[in-house]
Amino acid sequence: MTLGLATLHVISFTLMVLITRNALQLQNVQDELSFYWMYHSHPANQLVHFIFVPTLVWTLCIMFVHAELAPIEIKLPLLPKHNLNHVTLWCILYSWLYLKIDPIGGALYLPIMNIVMYGSALKLKEQDQKESKHSSWAGTGKLFRWSLVLHIASWVCQIWAHAHFEHGKPALLDSFGQALTIAPLFAFYEGLWVVGINTGLREQVLANVALLTKDMCGPESVMHVCNVVASSHSI
Length: 235
Prior knowledge:
By secondary structure, the protein is mainly alpha-helical. It has nine helices and two strands; from the N terminus they run αααββαααααα. The protein has a two-stranded antiparallel sheet.
């Protein structure tokens, strides 16, 4: 096993431990989305995350499908034939978690992750492996490199958006595990709310945010969420 492949295994297992530990503590989707909304209250920042959180998840899928766990062949409808890998476990973990805390959002989101993102990652890897002249876990290396670059660029865009629009730190600095766990579902809900799906949940989230920010938003606060809460109270 090469150093690069070993590093992928270590990173993936570490992320799964963090996500699982946080998942076991989750109570309901309203509280989790409320925590995340406090850090993503500006429409421009929400748009940035709506675009780049899925990009983060997709590029992670592309990179980690290269890390196979066992020569166990998996044949599923709509997916290319493949061996058990880390993203297989991620899909199982997120499917269980999102259906547990939010059957509506989970049922709508999971085909995107399990079929669109996972399936396209498998297909891209398959094509890259065919183009490779060497027997290597990374194939030609081109697919892995451009997905890594796109992944890093997605982080940069989101960090910039937090500083520029929210005037505050990203959610992951307060709870890295919680941010990893709920970010994909939150970004998905930003799109659902725009088209009018499950807007009742959005109202519950905003009510929770007002309570959560009560002690945080003082006269000197510059966080955008405090302006949103203050505006809602003045109406």
